[in-house]
Design goal:
Helices cover 12% and strands 45% of the residues.
Length: 580
């Protein structure tokens, strides 16, 4: 395969004649679908002229030029070298040869070829200081090992690569890079996950709450019914954890297409080894310049066309035509104002089902309620899956929520925690196949508060105020409790609820504490997966007033009595007990 010819263009300028090379955009041709020959390590020499393919807009690759600066032995990992190149064109450099956008996030995987059409490697690393026209390539002979088996290189490597002093000194003297760039070394081209369906304000809060370490940015959504874009060498390639309402994805470039096999990125996505990411083409919109964190590609993913089944140090390996097994997340969200919306997200990485499902509910709820603020919610979720032996399991849970600050985000965390417990249960490996939400949101905060708290001791009711001294009660007796509940907005008539808590005979001589609150403590630890599902379905609800006795050591689980009321019970009261 021969690459496009480059014309030498001369233009007059006030300071003299400026000479630059300009790629002919319309003449670009991609390699054939059969795998290009990889350049052996012994054939790579300093000064070798190269060119490559990448996409800045749309789906058609344009070309860039370059020159090999040298090879860093063991630069990526022990036994895995890095090829250093200086690139130009394709918005990396401007018309006068100065650095424009530099090597950007999203170029990962861009194939680089020698003059005779052999594949030298894939752009995968850039200088830590941005922007720069110097890139690090993952050698093609290493990426070729990912084919067929998908086993690849299992070595460990740091995200940053130091430049040896002798090499750095030469490159600085030659004007290829500055001293500060040489000291900073190379780093993997950043691949922030783009997340559709939630706002940037939400992403920061979710990142903190779910302890997500990777940078998240707002991106575009795609679905299984969207038009597909072919995967071609130098073309856009998106690897996604989910798609639909919530598309969580990383955008890079395809390096080689070998029949139905695809090599891309030149570095890992999640570094999971075996993988179930979905593979998509994409339509690039533009390259966003950023002199602080580095420029990056903005693209719309297309429909899934295959699976990423290998996620390795030297790159990712995909198969066109085979889609990964998935978890379907659906939702019907309505508001008391009459708005409603149905949503759907497909998750292909099982371990991310809890947080992406929560993202899905939040995005749909925000769209329907159309505000961030106080309110109420009633959410029901039904979860289905399979056991180790292939048999089916299912459970449903319903709960109410109220928040005077942010109701939609308040309503997502319980289902997240329950799905996490299912996937991390100690009884058997299970799979979640379907998650369905049905939710109704109201725009006004409304809850019940505990107006009065009383306990009956020795035949008389004692009203609990503030931090009063411990009340003496008898072991082996029933302790009556009375609560007066009033609406938070003052509407309606206060309601009195009577409960009773058994004080265990074994608690004599101990101190204890009686709590009055909405909801209750977690149920006893399950002894089987079936019991876990039952515990999750029947856990105390936020609209259930509970009286909870926690006695001293050796008295067993907390004693609880409760009653479901009409609304969420906000706040709590407690009193200390001396058990005789």
């Amino acid at each position: 395969m021969k690459h496009p010819t480059r014309w030498i263009v001369a233009s007059a300028a006030a300071t003299g004649l400026v000479v630059t090379t300009v790629p002919i955009q319309s003449a670009v041709s991609a390699p054939d679908s059969d795998c290009p020959e990889a350049v052996p390590a012994n054939d790579i020499t300093t000064g070798m002229v190269v060119d490559g393919l990448t996409v800045t807009r749309g789906t058609t690759p344009d070309t860039f030029a370059g020159e090999v600066l040298g090879t860093l032995e063991d630069g990526i990992a022990p036994g895995l070298d890095m090829i250093m190149v200086q690139l130009s064109g394709s918005e990396i450099t401007g018309p006068a040869g100065n650095v424009d956008k530099g090597v950007w996030a999203g170029m990962s995987g861009s194939p680089v070829y020698t003059a005779d059409g052999r594949l030298l490697g894939a752009v995968a690393y850039g200088l830590s200081t941005a922007p720069s026209d110097v890139a690090g390539l993952t050698p093609a002979y290493e990426m070729r090992q990912l084919l067929t088996s998908g086993a690849g290189n299992s070595l460990q490597a740091d995200a940053k690569v130091a430049i040896p002093r002798s090499v750095a000194a030469r490159l600085v003297d030659d004007g290829v890079m500055t001293s500060s760039e040489a000291r900073a070394g190379f780093q993997r081209l950043p691949m922030p996950f783009s997340v559709s369906g939630v706002s940037s304000r939400r992403l920061q809060k979710l990142t903190d709450r779910f302890d997500i370490k990777r940078r998240l940015v707002v991106g575009s959504a795609t679905s299984a019914t969207a038009p597909a874009v072919d995967i071609i060498p130098g073309g856009n390639l998106v690897a996604s954890l989910s798609y639909g309402d919530v598309t969580v994805a990383g955008t890079g470039t395809a390096t080689a297409v070998c029949d139905s096999e695809v090599l891309a990125f030149g570095h890992p996505m999640l570094w999971s080894g075996d993988s179930t990411l979905a593979m998509h083409g994409a339509n690039a919109l533009f390259i966003q310049g950023d002199t602080v964190f580095g420029s990056f590609k903005v693209a719309n993913p297309a429909a899934p066309v295959g699976i990423i089944d290998g996620d390795r140090l030297a790159g990712i390996h995909g198969l066109v035509g085979t889609l990964p097994d998935a978890t379907d997340v659906t939702s019907h969200v309505a508001s008391t104002s009459g708005r409603s919306r149905d949503g759907q997200t497909v998750i292909t990485v099982p371990s991310r089902t809890p947080d992406i499902s929560a993202f899905h509910l939040l995005g749909n709820a925000d769209r329907v309620l159309d505000k961030i603020g106080a309110g109420t919610a009633r959410v029901r979720w039904t979860v289905e899956g399979t056991r180790e032996n292939g048999s089916l399991w299912e459970y449903s849970r319903v709960n109410r929520y109220a928040s005077d600050f942010d109701i939609t985000i308040e309503s997502i965390f319980e289902s997240y925690e329950q799905l996490s417990r299912i996937l991390n249960n100690r009884f058997q490996d299970v799979r979640i196949t379907d998650v369905n939400y049905r939710a109704t949101y109201g725009p006004t905060f409304h809850a019940l508060s505990i107006r009065k708290f009383e306990v009956r001791v020795d035949g008389r009711w004692i009203t609990i105020h503030g931090h009063r001294p411990a009340i003496r009660v008898h072991a082996g007796s029933d302790l009556p409790v009375r609560a007066t509940l009033a609406s938070s907005d003052g509407s309606g008539t206060p309601r009195t609820i009577r409960l009773s808590v058994r004080i265990p005979a074994s608690a004599g001589g101990n101190a204890g504490t009686l709590y009055l609150q909405g909801g209750g403590p977690a149920q006893a630890a399950p002894s089987s997966f079936n019991q876990l599902l039952s515990n999750l379905a029947n856990a105390p609800r936020n609209d259930e007033l509970s009286a909870i006795l926690r006695a001293g050591p050796g008295t067993g689980a907390p004693r609880v009595d409760g009653e479901v009321v009409s609304d969420v019970v906000a706040g709590s009261r407690h009193v200390h007990l001396q058990i005789r």
